[in-house]
Design a protein that fits this description.
Helix content is about 35%, strand content about 25%. With about 230 residues, it is of the alpha/beta class. It is globular and about 45 Å long. It starts with 14 loop residues before the first strand and ends with a helix.
Length: about 230
């Protein structure tokens, strides 16, 4: 076991889906996986392993924000030999045509976090997704009539921004939406040469003020999960 994951070495699959919310991890495991079992509940950060179409898949909560998520990314990769991590999370729209429940593939992740400045001595580093996973997700969406948008997202350290109109600056430069973990995932995936992709569902809009309920965020957004699970097939 690691410091924050109470699992034996062989209890976690090489592919891990990671929502921020541990209760969404529980819902995903119970809804989509066969023979699922909980391998860890340290700090309430639930983790499960089961099977999807005969392939072992794990689902692990990460918590909110890059610092929390990076702990789990690091331990999964270094302690449990995970080779592929797919974030399945929610995001806030920065554009009127990016609507509630739209699915976003994060091709790259801008960030206001200092995580990469500490590594690269204030030189900008551009964390990006794995091309193979992007292509699989795009093809799956097309074949199953699931509309997908793709582009740059913002991984923010702030959930409540002091300036409610600050999003317009990011939107002007083509950033589609805001979330809180993708830049950390893409950076650590590059460091350890694993596959990574963030698939996001728009749960609220900074443009219109629309919001999904916490129950919807926890227990719906099935299309995002189906994309993630199906692109993990051999």
């Amino acid at each position: 076991m690691s410091a924050h994951i109470d699992a034996k070495k062989n209890e976690i699959a090489e592919t891990v889906l990671m929502p921020g919310d541990p209760l969404r991890a529980k819902w995903m495991a119970e809804t989509f996986l066969d023979n699922a079992y909980c391998y860890s509940n340290i700090r309430g950060m639930l983790g499960y392993t089961g099977e999807f179409k005969g392939q072992r898949i794990s689902i692990q909560g990460s918590g909110m924000g890059i610092p929390s998520a990076m702990i789990y990314y690091h331990e999964l990769i270094k302690e449990y030999d995970v080779k592929r991590i797919i974030r399945v999370g929610t995001a806030g729209s920065y554009h009127e045509d990016v609507k509630i429940r739209d699915i976003i593939l994060a091709l790259s992740a801008s960030t206001n976090s200092g995580i990469n400045n500490a590594i690269f001595n204030d030189v900008s580093y551009a964390p990006t997704a794995n091309f193979n996973l992007i292509m699989k997700a795009a093809v799956y969406g097309q074949e199953n009539n699931i509309p997908i948008k793709a582009g740059n997202v913002l991984s923010s350290d702030q959930y409540y921004d002091e300036d409610p109109l600050d999003y317009k600056k990011w939107a002007k430069y083509g950033v589609l939406c805001v979330e809180m973990e993708a830049a950390g995932l893409y950076t650590i995936a590059a460091k350890y040469n694993i596959e990574a992709l963030a698939i996001l569902t728009i749960s609220d809009s900074l443009v219109t003020g629309e919001k999904c309920s916490f129950e919807e965020r926890e227990r719906t957004f099935e299309e995002m999960v189906k994309i993630a699970l199906n692109i993990c097939q051999y």
